[in-house]
Amino acid sequence: MKPIVAVSTPVGAGAISIVRLSGDGALDIALKVFSCKQKIQPRLVTLGTFSYNGIKERCLLVYFKAPHSYTGEDIVEFQCHGGELLTREVLKALVENGARLAENGEFTKRAFLNGKVSLDSAEGIIDVINAGTEAELKAGYNLMSGKLYSEVKALQESITDELASIDMTLDYPEHDDEGETLAHTKNVLVEVEKKLNELLSTASAGKLIKSGVNAIIVGKPNVGKSSLLNALLGEDRAIVTDIAGTTRDTITESISYKDIKINFIDTAGVHDSTNLVEQLGIDRTKKALESADIVLLMLDSSSKLSEEDRELLKLTENKKRIIILNKADKKKALEIKDKYILISAKNGENIERVKEEIYSTFASGTIDTSGLILTNVRHIEALESAHKICEETIDACEIHTPDIVSFMLKELWAELGKITGETETESIIDAIFSKFCLGK
To answer: Taking the model in full, what pTM does it have?
Structure first.
């Protein structure tokens, strides 16, 4: 394949910039602009001089000979001093000498096409790059290292064995017992179904790892919602004033807490208002409540319960919620029967307790990142579809002929193949690799 080239490190001033070149004749192109005293050998770093159109640079070159490389092709990497102009000149020189600019994720796509990685493992690479929490990083590594691939291939091998047995029955009916063969296939599929259930049981933890917890902060105007958001984030993200109705839209910011992500959503104060803009913000608050995982309902501890407070208590009574009494730095005037956390958003009192309460509600002791956890929607959907086909095939073993069961087994095998990329459509594969950055 024609050599492709891209900058594999962030462009800008820095210690090192890496320009990666992959494809047939990659080393020949590199040697047009690089000279050194020693012979270049695979997997050894070589010090030499880049020289092209009057631009010179002392840099390192690393050569990986196919198939022992990331892409499975010949790869050459230039490691030069970090600088935007210099990096651009190296890139330009390689393009002018026969390479073309790579597309997003094209190096990893070539690795997939050359059998160096499976599709699910490639998606694990994306997850590792984009990880924002320790749990995301561990889940991404497990996916990248092939844990899901191994599980799926084991299931496919079991299905392949049953297909072979059924084909033998169809080809030589006089030597094989149809009922016995289908009974064995049913038993194997029952075990496949158990494994699929086991994998899918990790999806809820995977959603928590990938998307985090959506915690919406609600309350009447001037109760301290924006002050709480700022205290939770440890920075001044939302505008805080004594004027009621300052927040007129939802503001979402995330933090990493222990091994999960918490998405805090600050909202407009809920109350009766004739101001059109403010009312739109209140409507958005009520809509955001519907999709929130947990509600942080704020009340003013220095004031008695108002009608607006009562409305919010009723509105959120059937949702997971933490009642927060703010303004602990003032004299307490509010008494409620519900469990609550008394805080001062102004001086930071009990802010960590709020975070811990959210964490313990969703994640305390429930996430085991040492094993495989499904975090990818595409994988979950494929396994759910495979599970449905598996159930139908188990039933088919009781009522249908071997040829129909064989057809259904092939359908099950193909559905599992979507995960590894063996049977996924080209458009989906292209979409996955387009999510990668340039140079990866």
So the answer is: 0.82
SS3 (DSSP) at 299:
strand
Domain made up of 120-202+373-433: CATH architecture: Up-down Bundle (1.20)
List C-alpha distances in Å: 52 to 32, 68, 76, 234. Answer: 9, 29, 17, 50
Domain boundaries, the chain: 4-102, 120-202+373-433, 209-362
Pairing verdict, β 100-101 and 213-218 = unpaired
Residues with Cβ within 8 Å of residue 296, at least 6 apart in sequence: 215, 216, 217, 218, 228, 264, 321, 322, 324, 354
**What residues contact 112, with CB distance under 8 A and at least 6 apart?**
118, 119, 122, 421, 429, 433
Helical spans, DSSP H, in 104-220 = 106-113, 119-130, 134-144, 147-171, 178-200, 203-211
Q: Which two three-digit tokens encode residue 216?
A: 């919406």
Tokens standing for 404?
């129909």
The most confident of the ranges 213-227, 322-336, 381-395 is 381-395
Q: Which CATH class is domain 4-102?
A: alpha beta
Fold for the domain defined by 209-362 = Rossmann fold (3.40.50)
C-beta separation of 251 from 237 below 8 A: yes
Structural element, H or E, at residue 231: helix 225-233
Count of C-beta atoms within a 10 Å radius of residue 277? 11
Most confident of 147-151, 179-183, 400-404: 147-151
